[in-house]
Structures are given as structure tokens and as C-alpha cells.
Amino acid sequence: MVAILVAALVVLQLAEAAAVLRQHTRAAPARRAEDDSTVNLPLLSYDHRIPDPSYLVLSTKLPSILARAIQITSHSWEVGTLTEALLEVYNPALTPFAYSVAAFHGALDGQTRVPNAPREAARVAAKFLAGYDFSSAPSGNGGLDRLLVNGTPRALVDGAGSLGDPCSLGPAAWVLAHFAGAVGDVGTPLASGTQYAWAVGNQLAYLQQGPRSDNGAISQREDKFELWADQGYMVPPFLAYLGLTTNNTALLEQALDQWLLTSSALLDTTHNLYRHLNTWDTRFWATGNGWMLAGLMRVLASIAAGGAGRLVSKVSEAESIAARVFVALFDRLDDSSRLPNYMDEVDPALAHADSAGTAAVIGAFYRFLMLRPDLARPMQGAAERAFAAVVDKIDPDGWLTAVVDPQGTHGFLVYPGAQTRSPEGQSLLAIMWAARTAAGQ
């Protein structure tokens, strides 16, 4: 009888933990899976300076891991995370972390052969932009940058009520605008570079006219003002990438300002952890902390590559915040060296280790190690153990296991033993690999 009562209590606790979250699931359109035979990614060259066996394992498995991501990605934030992962892995010179003006503008400068065109990212971005209505796009030639001004407010893709999530596809769409004539056959009929640039300008206008707070913070939601930690990876990096690639310091500053405003609203300064939201999910969600930190690394890299020296004071403030959050996160690694899905929770149903959120944090850490080694070095050993712990959760078929349900079907929870598949988790593995490869240690 005691055993039956205990089991019933556990069931009730699980139901209670999910009750509030269940009301706020992200809308889930039908997945657009691809046949295995259609996904064929290049093999990778790994950094021989990194003597960690887990890094070698991930290097070997990464093409199949990304192929899995491509097969199951369908939602706006998943597409944005995937295309960013593909760029960081296969075309780092087109990302803020190793940005090259020559690489970015090479196709537009009349080069007939572009040696490292972003075909993998273009294939995914073009597929998800295939339904965009380009009928009102301007015709003719001219600089693409002009199309970012005075756009018609419209999202690149359906955000299912989110204002911020479609922005995550913005950088890849902007890359596609510059390489539409150079990527060749990507399996989807391509629009012109002018059309894609116009669509990015529309996305920028749509974001800028969205709900804001009195202090100027842009909402994550379309119909009301609400901040999510998730938007730290969606909104500021979009603004920063446009600022970097168009030499627009105002956009670079807006990107950092938006990150700082979101950080100020969601950071619990007692625990130095980010709440998921300030309303219906105020807990310290591992993936939310990962989104905030990973997004900041892209913004800081954009500012560094863009030479926006006048932002040094704000950059220093953001770096100091990041250092404190990293310390708090590494202090909370569990016995498996992964982060609890929700941290500082008594209920074990909320605190199962999450591989996806841990991958997001570790990827951000290795970027931070390059930006501020003086602040990051003391945490490097813990990061290496967490890296190995995440890699250990990749199954033989290339799926990352023990991941939070990214749709929040019954709450943003980890279900041990369940076959939960996370599109963003697959992509975050690639982002983690790219960051450690770049760090070379």
C-alpha cells in the first residue's frame, strides 16, 4: 500500500509540475521530415590540438548529427538555430566569430567562382523561405543594404505568435541574399538576392514595430509585451549581424542594448541565473540561460569584428554579467557533469539533467574563453567535463538523448528514458563543436 501511495504521489507531482507550463506550449505545426537519402553533408576536419577523445568522437559524428537536425527541424527558432550551426561549422568566415569582409561580399563583387559558398545553410534557408510572397519586391540592381530601410513589416516565417523567433533566420536569409547566385542547385528554386534582401528588411521592420516596454525592450511575443530568455539568441544577434555586415554601428549598439535590457529584466542577481520568463515560468531553465549566453557571444563577436570601439563600456558590462552567470552555472553541474533542466528545484521531476541546455552553455563558454580568457580560464576544467558528458549522450544513430521537450508539450521537461528528439539540441551540438574547434583547446 505504501508503495502504491508513493507512486501516486510522484504522478501527482509530475502533473503539478507540468500544469502551468502546459498552457504555454509553442504552437507545433507538422514536422517537415526529410528522407535520409536527401541529407548528405561534408565530412569535417577537426583540430588536432585538442587531445580530448570526446571532441574526436563529436567531430566524427557531427555530419550525421546535423543530418538528423535537418530531418526534424520545422519551427522558426529551430530553423534559425540550424542555419547558424551550419554556417559556424562549414562557413565560419560568414559568421561574426571569424568574419571576413572579402568572404561575405565575394559573390556580389563579381567573382564567378566562390570557393566556399554556404550551400548547406542556403539549402535549409531556401527551403523554409520558399513560401514567402516576393511579389511586391523591388526589381532592378542596386546595393542590397538599401533594402533594410523602410521595409514592409512582415516576418520571414511563421513565428506561431512569437515576434522574436523568426529573427533567428534573419542572418542566414541575409547570407542567402548575398550568395543566391553562387550556391548553385540547393534543391529549392531560389529567389533573387534582391528579393531575399527585401524580405530581411521586412523582418527588421516587423521586429522594430513590435511591442516594447517603457525602457525600449522589444517583446518576444507579437500580441503583448513579454520577455523570454530565448529571445537573447533570436533578436540581438539578428540586429548585430546586420550591423556588422552593413557597417551600421547604430544596429550594433541596439543589439547590445536589447541584450542588456533583457538581461536586466530576467537576471536574478542573488543567484546569477536567468529566469525563463517573469510571468508563468520564473524558474532557472538551463536552455534559457544557454540562449542568453550564446546570443551574447554572437553580439560581442559582431561588435569586435565591426570595430565599434565606442561600445567598450557596455561590452565590459555584458562580459562581467556573463562571467557571473557562467560561474553560477558551473557550480550547478550535477553528478553527471550536466546542468539540471531547472536549477535550484527540490522537485526531481524538474531537475533531470538536460543535454541540450548543457550543450548551449558549453558552446557559449568556449566562445567566451576566446573573448575573455582571463575570466573564463578558471572554469575550463568543468567545461571540458560537461562537454564530454554531453557527447556521451549521443546515441549510435546520431541523436542527442536526455533532452528537454523543446515543444513544451506537457511543460519544458526532461523525461528520462523517453525517445525525445530535439531539433535545437542537434544543432546546439554543432554550435558547441564549432566553438571548441575555434578555441583550439
TrEMBL record:
Keywords: Hydrolase, Signal. The keyword Lipoprotein does not apply. InterPro entries: 6-hairpin_glycosidase_sf, 6hp_glycosidase-like_sf, Glyco_hydro_88. Pfam families: Glyco_hydro_88. GO terms for molecular function: hydrolase activity. GO terms for biological process: carbohydrate metabolic process. Gene3D superfamilies: 1.50.10.10. Residues 1-17 form the signal peptide. This is Six-hairpin glycosidase. It comes from Cutaneotrichosporon spelunceum.
